[in-house]
Amino acid sequence: MYLLLLGIAMMLLKYLQVGFVAHWSWWWVLSPFAMAVVWWSWADASGYTKRKEMEKAEQKKRARIAKLREDMRTPMKRH
After folding, report:
1. Which pLDDT does position 79 carry in this prediction?
2. Cα 70 from chain centroid?
3. Closest by CA position to 10, among listed 47, 38, 35
4. What does the alpha-carbon distance between residue 22 and residue 14 come to, in Å, rounded to a whole number?
5. Per-residue b/e over 6-31, b at no fewer than 16 CB within 10 Å?
6. Which helix (H) or strand (E) holds 57?
7. 38 to each of 5, 52, 54, 61, how far by Cα in Å?
8. Other CB atoms closer than 10 Å to residue 45's CB: what's the count?
9. Secondary structure of the chain: what % helix, strand, coil (to 5)?
């Protein structure tokens, strides 16, 4: 995601002829997009993406269980 944001920022700077990026070649300006493609290909092929997704799900599960346990410990309030 960061590579995409960097690519968009660099592309806008190049298009609007702002700062030192205006003198760069378009190949350099568009290179973060290519790096993002390489990153996503590696992340999917190596299982990194799936592993991170599973870690998030496990963390949510642990938080949900902890909240349920805490709710069971506190006495119910009567209105």
Report:
1. 60
2. 31
3. 35
4. 5
5. ebeebbebbeeeeeebeeeeeeebeb
6. helix 48-73
7. 16, 18, 22, 32
8. 9
9. 85, 0, 15
Amino acid at 17: Q
Confirm whether pTM is higher than 0.85.
Answer: no
**HSE of 18, CA atoms in CB hemisphere, 13 A:** 7
Q: Which of 11, 38, 34 is nearest to 22 (CA)?
A: 11
Residue whose structure tokens are 């205006």: 22
**pLDDT at residue number 72:** 86
pLDDT tens profile 31-73? 999 999 999 999 989 988 888 899 999 999 999 999 998 888 8
